[in-house]
Amino acid sequence: MTTKRSPAEIAWFGALCDDDYEQIGVVQNDLRSSWDHCRDIVLEAERCGFDNILLPSGYSLGIDTVSFASSVASLTSTMKLLVAVRCGEVWPPQLARQMATLNQTLNGRLTINIISSEMPGESLDGRARYARTRENMQILRTLLRGDRLDHEGEFYSLHLDPPRIAAEKPHDPQFYFGGLSEEARDVAAAEADVYLMWPDTEEVVAETIDDMRVRAATYGRTLRFGYRCHVVVRDTPEQALDAANWIVGGVDASEGDRIRSQSLDSQSIGVRRQAELRETSANDGFVEDYLWTGIGRARSGCGAAIVGTPLEVAGKINRYRDLGIDAFIFSGYPHKEECTRFAQSVLPLVR
Predict the structure, then answer these.
(1) Is residue 175 part of a domain?
(2) CATH code, 108
(3) Domain count, the chain
(4) Domain containing 41: what range?
(5) For residue 121, with 0-12 CB atoms within 10 Å meaning exposed, 13-18 middle and 19 or more buried, which class applies?
(6) Rounded average pLDDT over 208-215
(7) Which of 150, 156, 115, 114 is nearest to 135 (CA)?
(8) Total-model pTM
(9) What is the pLDDT of residue 127?
(10) Pick from 85-89, 248-252, 330-334: least confident
(11) Mean pLDDT of all residues in the chain?
């Protein structure tokens, strides 16, 4: 019997943060983050039929996200852009004007990945940082909707009309947001539209979805759920695992530690959970069927990949869909080549 599933949003990943190599950690100048290289990834993702593309943001890594998104927006026509914004870095009314302008360029195709960031050089505890992030989300949504803002909070006191561009073309943005701490979950339940998760076992994914549904209901809201994961797709299981191992084969343990430690969120609960998955995986790196944690040996953040044949990878994705996930953000190494391979071999199986 065939299971009828609701359509899922399938997105790719734009490698703006200097992490696109044939082997992670082995620098190739032609694959470093640049306008030309990242533009080519975006255009290939749209050509391949992806629904959206995440444009990530890091202060010290790669190129600026909003500037890049503004430059590439007019080159696209169908695919949405999921633009990551670091809340601590931009004054909220100015960010609203930037996002409204970008959405006009995209003709309504803007989605926003909210990152609960500090300002460069700043250090805030989790409670304060997430409280400020929540205020940012409230301010940004109000102004992008074209509504007057009267906000009195712990971090911002703002009383002003929306910028003209937002008032003339209101936009109710989809906020994608993730985090495993209590503070992060509460902000997501209250303010996010899509709760993003990093890779985890199907059991833990199901538990997280159940928890977030209950939390959102206390605010009279519902959430969509997203899943951010790497993929390694090859014709046979053996070829897929060989390719996965080769991707991380250029770094030793000390170099992997250095790569992970340079991330600004290297001590977050989410990053620690990715490390736990690696520690509890089998000798071959699989923590459960097709979920391979070895990729986390050489990178920070999202630390696992779905590894297998096209049918195996599609089957794993569909199991996540059955758990309640309907927004996926995939990536692979190198990003442009794996984008094409995934689109040709897996996308037709999950559409």
Answers:
(1) yes
(2) 3.20.20.30
(3) 1
(4) 9-229+314-350
(5) exposed
(6) 98
(7) 156
(8) 0.92
(9) 93
(10) 248-252
(11) 91
CB within 8 Å of 176: residues ≥ 6 apart: 82, 111, 112, 113, 114, 192, 193, 194, 196, 226, 327
Residue 321: φ, ψ to 5°: -60, -40
**Strand residues in 41-120 grouped as ranges (E):** 52-55, 80-86, 110-115
Determine, yes or no, domain membership for 288.
Answer: no
d(CA 101, CA 22): 35
Q: What integer pLDDT is reported at residue 341 of this predicted model?
A: 98
What integer pLDDT is reported at residue 274 of this predicted model?
Answer: 76
In a domain, 236, yes or no: no
Handedness of CA 107, 36, 30, 301 (dihedral sign): negative
* Domain presence at residue 126: yes
Compute the distance between CA of residue 257 and CA of residue 167 in angstroms, rounded to an integer: 48
Decide if pLDDT at 32 tops 70.
yes
Letter for the amino acid at 105? T
Residue 15: the pLDDT is 92
Q: Is 324 left (phi over 0), alpha (psi -120 to 50) or beta?
A: left
| Alpha carbon distance 200, 209 (integer Å) | 12
Buried b (16+ CB within 10 A) or exposed e, 165-180: bbeeeebebbbbbbbb
Q: Where do the DSSP E strands lie in the chain?
A: 9-13, 52-55, 80-86, 110-115, 149-152, 157-160, 175-178, 194-197, 224-233, 286-288, 291-292, 305-308, 327-331
Rounded CA separation 11/8 (Å): 10
pLDDT category, 1, cuts 50, 70, 90?
very low
User: How confident is the model at residue 2, as a pLDDT?
Assistant: 52
- Please give the pLDDT value at position 284: 87
